[in-house]
Amino acid sequence: MNAWMIRLLESVKRRLEIKRAFQKTFDRKDRSVQLVLAAMANFCRSDAAEGCGRPIDPYRLALNAGRRQAYEYLLAQMNITQQDLDEMELGGSEEDEEIY
Fold it and tell me: How much is the pLDDT for 1?
């Protein structure tokens, strides 16, 4: 194997290892994890529109973009989709409501 192929395989292996560590650490069914995700979404302003009738501050814009990027990275590592987030905010899916 070429040296670049070995480095590529090691990089892929490392990324998978990190992804598994996130998923092991943050069990998305755990209520505490859901609270942390909600707090992170609020802190990272994951759904905030920039500007909103105010003059745009380029420093604030960059700060918010970085926060959103960190939040999106966390979600990606945990394999959480927008549908998963919606279910968490509603307290579960409709199927869960039938059980209770």
Answer: 74
For 38, other C-beta atoms within 10 Å of its C-beta total 13
- The residues spanned by each domain of the chain are 3-99
DSSP output for 44-82: TTTTPPS-TTS---HHHHHHHHHHHHHHHHHHHHTT--H
Contact 91, 35 (CB under 8 A): no
pTM: 0.65
Nearest to 68 by CA among 60, 78, 56: 60
**pLDDT single digits (tens) 44-93:** 876 666 656 677 788 888 888 888 898 888 888 888 887 887 777 644 44
Token pair 């909103």 is found at 52
